[in-house]
Specification:
It contains 4 helices and 27 strands. By secondary structure, it is of the alpha/beta class. It has 2 domains: 132 residues, Hexapeptide repeat proteins (UDP N-Acetylglucosamine Acyltransferase, domain 1), CATH 2.160.10; 55 residues, Udp N-acetylglucosamine O-acyltransferase, Domain 2, CATH 1.20.1180. The strands form 3 sheets. A 10-stranded mixed sheet has the order 3-6-9-12-15-18-21-24-26-27, covered by helices on one side. A 9-stranded parallel sheet has the order 1-4-7-10-13-16-19-22-25, with no helix packed on it. Strands 2-5-8-11-14-17-20-23 form an 8-stranded parallel sheet, with no helix packed on it. Helix 2 runs antiparallel to helix 3.
Amino acid sequence: MRHSTAIIHPNAQLAADVEVGAYSIIGEHVEIGAGTVIGPHVVINGHTRIGQHNRIFQFCSLGEIPQDKKYTNEPTRLEIGDHNTIRECCTFNIGTVQDVGVTRLGNHNWIMAYVHVAHDCQVGDHTILANCTQLAGHVTIGDHAILGGFTGVHQFVKVGAHVITGVSTVLLQDLPPYVLASGNPSVPHGINSEGLKRRGFSSAAIMAIKRAYKTLYKSGLSLEDAKAAIQSQLQAHAELQLLVDFLAATSRGIIR
């Protein structure tokens, strides 16, 4: 289960069945839950907690200090949930005291090769981050988001649930829930209808989301007027609450 060449600090807390591959290094403050498999040549440092039944492939670096010049060795954290797949050469950094102090990855996420998750990012559940997706510091990713290969997300940007981005998309402002986006800089191209169908959204709910999208992007209304109009549609369609709450909380503005 644990290769003889792996270096595991005696104070690290690993469940009895955790597998650790050849030449991997596990630091002093690392906790790893049952059923997790660590591949060869993986380095896990810092105050890092990894949950159950994750699979982490070779050459990943998890829990290293943030790429932030303000960082001065504060004991910030990286937390990874359960049932995640983290493919080759991914880099996840711990948080900073300028934010919540924790970088988080939720549950059931599919993280492809060469993905970077910077300090203080908050990634939800059931996301797909395709190859070479790059998240700058303080980014938030909602549940069921799919970011296409080479997507780049600017610091402090919020990405809503159920979105999808095309290859090489650059997000400089917030991306509302349900929206399909692509380009550099990114622009909206409708809603993620196919993804919503696969997740069991009813035809009526999808039509309501399409109507809200047209209100937001096709009506010619200002953002504030569009928000008020979508709020008026909410009573008949609870699925719009996610969009209403997101628009109320945005601080960088949304892609338009």
